[in-house]
Write a structure and sequence with these properties.
Layout: E1 3-7, H1 11-23, E2 27-31, H2 34-43, E3 48-51, H3 60-69, E4 78-82, H4 89-97, E5 101-104, H5 110-122, E6 155-159, H6 163-175, E7 179-183, H7 186-195, E8 200-203, H8 212-221, E9 230-234, H9 239-248, E10 252-255, H10 260-270
Parallel strand pairs: 1-2, 1-3, 3-4, 4-5, 6-7, 6-8, 8-9, 9-10
Helix pairs in contact: 1-5, 2-3, 2-6, 7-8
Length: 275
């Protein structure tokens, strides 16, 4: 029985697509956000994935990049099912990231989707290659002012209670040659910082023991840590929260879904070279 993963946050689309696949003899697994999709992929590889791009927590482009960068998942057929038009920037980003096929939701119903998946499983096709230089990444962020104290690898503390976020960030940060330490609660993050200050911290807003926003205030008052930049990474999109975090001292406030590659680039910008 072929196994399909549907990564989609629209319950209506999920229900009609999963119902059709099950009626056609597929085993179906559902992921309501990008983080859940990667958690499933790491545990039990499906035969194909139907992927929405506008997912909560971690966007579909980041899921695609994770798949294509992971040796055990690289050959997985990925059909992007999106509301975006075929020639939009988001569609181009999906092709560049490694989509096997791109389908518009208004043009393809559940029956068409099943047919596309069956064709791919019967006759796998190579990953499309965009023309060289056709679609460029966004320009780099303005460089920050923090100066790294030594010439070694960038040292990062990631404070987040989501194990999948740790896994995703660990993968991309390892590729960037960062040295990463992990904290699943705010108290542990503060202890790690006091014991051996990092070059930068990535901090979730909601954590057990010590809330991320409270930790940020303590971090900014600490004589050993105040000069070390903190990037907030949180699901809280409230503008008041963002303003409070920036005023307290966070250098950036990112909301989920997010791009791990953009976060890596941001870390490089804020941790300058030794002078």
């Amino acid at each position: 029985m072929p196994r399909i993963l549907i990564a989609e946050d629209d319950q209506f689309v999920t229900n009609i697509c999963s119902g059709k696949f099950r009626s056609e003899g597929f085993e179906v697994v559902i992921a309501p956000d990008g983080s859940a999709a990667i958690g499933i992929l790491e545990k039990d590889r499906p035969d194909a994935i139907v992927l929405d791009l506008m997912l909560p927590v971690l966007d579909g482009i980041s899921v695609l990049r994770f798949i294509r960068s992971h040796p055990e998942l690289r050959a997985l057929p990925v059909i992007v099912l999106s509301n975006s038009t075929y020639f939009s920037g988001l569609a181009q980003s999906a092709w560049t990231a490694g989509a096997t096929n791109f389908l518009n939701k208004s043009d393809y119903g559940p029956e068409d989707l099943v047919k596309e998946v069956r064709k791919l499983l019967a006759h796998p096709k190579p990953k499309p290659q965009p023309p060289p230089g056709a679609w460029n990444e966004p320009p780099p962020l303005p460089k920050g002012t923090y100066i790294k104290s030594d010439p070694g690898p960038i040292r990062v503390i990631v404070a987040d209670d989501d194990k999948v976020i740790h896994s995703v960030l660990g993968f991309f940060m390892e590729q960037a040659n960062f040295t990463v330490r992990w904290a699943f609660d705010g108290q542990r993050a503060l202890e790690l910082g006091e014991t051996d200050p990092p070059d930068i911290m990535v901090l979730d807003g909601q954590m057990p023991k010590l809330d991320g926003f409270e930790l940020l205030k303590l971090w900014q008052c600490h004589p050993k840590l105040a000069a070390i930049p903190v990037i907030m990474l949180t699901a809280q999109k409230d503008e008041a929260r963002k303003a409070d975090a920036i005023e307290t001292g966070a250098v950036e406030y990112l909301t989920k879904p997010f791009s791990p590659e953009r976060l890596v680039a941001m870390i490089r910008q804020y941790v300058g070279p030794r002078v």
